[in-house]
Amino acid sequence: MMQLEVMNPRGEIPSPVTLAISPRVSDFSGKKLVLVDNGKFGANTFLAVLAEMLKEKYPKATIVMYPKPAAQTITDLPKWYPTVKQQGDLFIFGVGD
Amino acid sequence: MPGVYFIASEFLEDAKSAARDGGMPGIRVLTLPADKYYLARDSKQELQPLANVSFDLIIDALTRPLTPEEAKPSPIQKQREDSNIQVTGKDFLNAFEKTNELFLAKHWADGLPIVPPAPELVKAMLAGTTRSPKDVIGQVAPKNGTATVEKIAINAVMAGARPEYFPVILAAMEGFTDKQYDLTHMQASTGSFTPVVIVDGPMAQELGFNSGIGMLGHGWRPNSTVGRALRLSLLNIGQTWPQVNDMGLTGRLEAYTFFTFAEDTARSPWEPYNVSRGFKLGDSTVTVATAVNPLVLGGGAVTPWTGQGVINSIVGRISSGGVVWPHSQTYILVLHPDCAVDLANHGYTRRSLQEYIYEQTRVPYEKLAGPVFFGHDNEVDFVRASIADGRIRPDRAQVFLDALKPGGRVPVVQSPDDLHIVVAGGSPGYDLLFSYPGTNWANQTKRIFGATLTSAGR
Lengths: 97, 458
Known about the structure:
The complex is a heterodimer. A three-stranded parallel beta sheet of chain A has the order 3-2-4, with helices on one face. Chain A is built from three helices and four strands. Chain A is elongated and about 75 Å long. By secondary structure, chain A is of the alpha/beta class. Helices cover 24% and strands 25% of the residues of chain A. Helices cover 37% and strands 16% of the residues of chain B. In chain B, the strands form five sheets. Chain B has a four-stranded mixed beta sheet with strand order 7-6-8-15. Chain B has a four-stranded mixed beta sheet with strand order 9-14-10-13. The longest helix of chain B has 20 residues, at 44-63. At the A-B interface, β1, α1 and β4 of A face β1, α1, α2, α3 and β3 of B. β4 (90-96) of chain A pairs parallel with β1 (3-8) of chain B.
C-alpha cells in the first residue's frame, strides 16, 4: 500500500458573527412596507405588481418603493444598506440573481 | 427590520451561501421560477401570475413567528483548513488517482487532473520566493479566504507551475486581492467574466511566456500553468463553485488558464505597457483585469488590413453602443506587433492612440438613448446618476457635465487611461478588444519581486 500526504488548498475563512433575523410582525396595520428594488431588469416591475396587491389588501399599511442607487460601488454598499431601515418597518427585497 | 428576499430559483444555493457568509443563515428567501420570471419580467401582466403565487408566501414570511433556531441560531463554526490529508492507494498511481477523485469531490479542483500537492513539492514551490509562507497576500472574495503565500503555493503545485513562476503568481494574487479590484464581481457574477493576465518586462522573456502566434492557446507551460494556478487559487482560497456561488451563466471561455500571455516588448514600437502604468523601465509586472470575451479584429493572414483600419473598426465597435454600461467601460486592446508598428509609422504613440480612440468614440448628446439599467429611462439621467454616485470619477465629472447639452459630445470611456493598449500576437496576427462594464475596479498592475530562481523579478 502507498500513502500520499497532500496539503489542503483552501483558504481559511473568518467566522462571521452569527445573527438572528428580526422578529416578525403580527399584522401590517399602520406599518410602512419598503419594497427595495435592487436595480436588476424587471425588479421594479415585479415589485410594482406586489405594491398594487399590498395596497389593495392592506389599505392601513403604507407601501413605498426604495430603489437601490445606480452603480453601487464596492466601497459604498455597506453604507447604503442601513439606509433601508430608515425608510420603514418591513422590507421586501428583489429580485436577486 | 423584518424582511424577505426574492431571488430567481436558480440562485437559491447562492443566496443560502451568501446568507451564511454574512452570518445570518436564517434569512427568509422566496424564489421565483427562473424559467418563467426572466421571460415575464418586462410585463406587469405576465408577472401577475407569479405575484399571485408568491403573495401569501410573502405575508407568511413577514408575519410567521420565528422558530427557536431562527431566534437564536447556532453559531457558524469556523472551518479549519490547515491539516494535511493522507490518501492511501495500492501503489503511487492509484494514490494519485484517488487524490484527484477526492479533490474534485471536495470541489478543490477544476475538473482536469491536478498534481497532488505533496509537502515536498510545496516546499520546492516556496523556494521560488523570498517571501515567508505565512505572509498574507490578501483576502479572496467572495468568502474572504485568507491567501497566504503557502496556500497559493499549494494551488500553484496543483496547477503544474514551476517554482520559477511563483513570484508571478504571487504578484497576480496581490492584484486580484487589492481592495481597489472588484474580485467579487469577477468571481460570482452571471456575466461569466474571464480574467486577462498580462506579464510584462524581463521576467516574461526569462520564463519563456508566449507572446506570439498562439499566445492564448496551449503549449507554453508558463502561460498555461500561471493562469491555472490563479484559477485554482481563486477557486480554493475564495471557496467558489459553479452553480453555488460562481454564477457565471456560460462558464468562462478560458475557464482553466484565463487569458494569460506576455507583452511582446521586443517587437513593440512603444514603451512597455507597464511603463505607461507608471512602473520603471526594466520592472517586471503582472496585470490582472476583468473582461468579457474579446472581439477579434483585423484580417490576419486572410484579408488585407491596415493599422488605421483596425482602429476605425474599434472606434465603430466602441461608439456603436449595445453595451450595458455605455459610459463606464474599460477596454484592453491587444494589437499584434505588425499593427502596432504600422500605427507607429503613421505617427501614433500609445498615448496619442488612446486619446484618438477616446475622442473619436465620444457620442453626440443628441444621440444618447435608452433604455438603461437601474430605473433610468434615458442615458442622460443615467450619466447624471453615475456622476452623483461616483461611478464616473470626480476628476472626470466635469467633462461629462460639459457634454450633457446640445452640441456636446459625451465620452464613452471615462478617460484615455481606461483604454489599455498592449502589444502581443503573431505576424501576421489578429487584434483583440477586451471590454468590461466597469472602470474603477477593473484592473491592477503589480510589480513582481522576491524571485530567487531567476535573474529578473528579484
